[in-house]
Amino acid sequence: EAQVTQNPRYLITVTGKKLTVTCSQNMNHEYMSWYRQDPGLGLRQIYYSMNVEVTDKGDVPEGYKVSRKEKRNFPLILESPSPNQTSLYFCASRGDRANTGELFFGEGSRLTVL
Amino acid sequence: DAKTTQPNSMESNEEEPVHLPCNHSTISGTDYIHWYRQLPSQGPEYVIHGLTSNVNNRMASLAIAEDRKSSTLILHRATLRDAAVYYCILRSNSNSGYALNFGKGTSLLVTP
Considering CB atoms only, which of B43, B92, B104 is closest to A108? Predict the structure, then answer.
């Protein structure tokens, strides 16, 4: 089954403790991205990647890092999480090169930073 | 991407058609009209997209006005599972950021 898989689905952590949210897709997609969803602010893009070793900032990249060493994986790294990074995170991927193709989203990772 | 305007919420009875409107008066010639929906506790899900002509797929139909300043997502027979937030989004090949501008969407309530 074609899917985007995120882990963990739920995480409670403390300020400053580094964490990684993994994202993996099995559709051989070149494009992957990370969004965060907050009440009243909607979904906002954090980082995106057009292909292996190619990443770029989205609208809200501060406090986050990403890497794209393999086509299928696009982890989101919070080096020193802060409470304002408490949010619902979604990873997405797209197969075609055009900017107008269908995005496939994961089921989300709910992160709480105390 | 150009801005879209949608009603905050709509309500429908089960098994009846639902017409979800979207206004995009500043749409450019290269903007595609996309619809996504987000079911409770799930990630957004692609529904349909189009450029100029009306489009049909297994989930819905998309009716696009002749001047492309508005469009309507049509669910032919609403089910309880269709209760979700529906987002109308414009996408252009010229958008270097590649981010989807989801906006607030329309929250669809389906009653039995």
Answer: B43
